[in-house]
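User: quick one, fold this
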Amino acid sequence: MVFSPDQLVQLKQFSLARVICDSGDDVTHVQRDVFTMVKSRDEYLPCRNIPQIDLKMWSDCCMDCGKAGDFRSITNHFRRRRDSTRFSYQSDKPESENKTVTSLGDFRSSVYSKHEVDTQMQEMKLRMREMETLVDDMEHAMKKMKKNMATMMSHAAKEMFCMEDSGEKRMHGDKWSRDDCTVCRCKMGKTRCKTVPCPTPNCPFPKKMPGQCCMVC
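Assistant:
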């Protein structure tokens, strides 16, 4: 079959993205090149912006020109012969006339051969395997980095100390009582203290016992 210049223009703008938009289930957005990974959502285009074939380039002398561009009006370019005889009932047509005109799926198959699709699928699988390897390497590097950071923090903590108001030096991890009610701890060069809260004694003359924080009756 020899295509006209207008038909060739239509064929060249046909893409696998258009096939996905037309054949996918509830697909409304797709990247222009479906074999490359998008870096942001902005690279997804609405299906209405993906070029599609104008089927009017294949319609000539249709019986109902109001339907030009519909596959049912495509004539002898996609079927062996055309009979102008009309029938009142579908069952009256000869068996050969009841055969469906070449479907859109068959037409797409003529544009994208099985070999081309298989080749592109293999390339996609190869890229996916490369991405999986890259992710595994990154996870391994992050685990190693986390382990090294923990080791560095451990060594750094041993060299850190806290200084009390009295001038006494406390090393990282040391714990001591500043008074009967206050417990302090040195952590990463900072002194952190916690005071024990005491309830109000339920007696007229409470007493403070040695070594105890709270007053007792």
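User: anything notable?
Assistant: The radius of gyration is 40 Å.
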